[in-house]
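Hi F.,

I've been meaning to write this up properly since the lab meeting, where we talked about keeping a consistent format for the predictions we share between groups. The idea is simple: the sequence comes first, exactly as it goes in, then the structure tokens exactly as they come out, then a line or two of notes. No screenshots and no reformatting. I'm using this chain as the first example so we have something concrete to point to.
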Amino acid sequence: MSDFESDFRIGFIGFGLIGGSIARALKKINSSYHLVAYDYHKNNPSTDLQAALHDQVLDRVTTTLSEEFPDCDLVFLCAPVLSNIEYLKQLKPLLKSDCILTDVGSVKTNIHEAVEELDLEAQFVGGHPMTGSEKTGYHNSYALLLENAYYILTPTAKTPGVMTQTLYHLVQKMGSIPILLDAREHDKITAAISHVPHIIAAQLVNLVRESDDEAEKMRALAAGGFKDITRIASSSPVMWQNICLTNGHEIKECLDRYISSLQIASEAITANDGEFLYRMFDTAGEYRSAIPNKSIGLMKKLFEVYLDIVDEAGAIATIATLLASNQISIKNIGVIHNREFEEGVLRIEFYDESAQQKAIAMLARYNYRIYERN
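Output, unedited:
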């Protein structure tokens, strides 16, 4: 199994953005891998799974777990966190003893507890690819979503070393950076750097929505920095509901500390405490600047550039044509109207770092003034 034979059989339960991206990456590694996915829509076949079959990303789709899955060497649970636990119960009597069972959920303690209760510890390695997008579904998946992303692995105390190493090396082959962590440590970390920020973003957007007037002037002016810090509020509500329900203890502990810090900031403003306010922004700025920018963390990195353009007809079309003629694909392009904290009137987003860097070099040759975000 550790040699990744060409007949390696891999199953998927749940096949959206993450599952689809993993499957694409696996087929890129070795097109001979046999990939199968479970479709619980027995009377109404999933369009995503049918599309994956058409793309030859999947080799087979089954509506019965007792087909294909008993022969799998590796099974990815890619459904919402609570659903994954239910599938564990169905898989237990089906899987062969040397099949590696893993998941991709961003909460680990609860599934580890379920694995222990079901006596599946000897073949489970928890997994969490620290990547994603505000967009969901197989149609938004792509192999490079995993490129240079941290991929957390949380083996149990009973997981054989060979199983952990097999998955570890497979993650490396997919282009990710594997890191071994304890499940509870993982949940404490993700609560602080992912789960609470998503709650903050969602509630900040709701605060603006509820504070806006009938003319919706706040919404019209909410661009630039506001959209950047609240982008993650567009993520799947079902997924984040599941995360809050399954990592509630760690999230609440971190959220309560954040609420306390906001109260302290509010009191400092009331007291005109300039020294505290300066220190608050200064220490935050220093710490943020020290955060590595090379590898993708829990919040998906944006590959974007900003540049100045002359306000004349065809200016954007000229740039789009230049990029297209150099085989550089654009993910998104648009004019930034609120630039209070931004430089550059035009924002261009790319699918990956390679396209971003090629665009910067090409646009510089044509004397465009370019700004990169840190």
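Notes:
The radius of gyration is 23 Å.
Confidence is low (pLDDT under 50) at residues 338-343.

If this format works for you, I'll send the rest the same way.

G.
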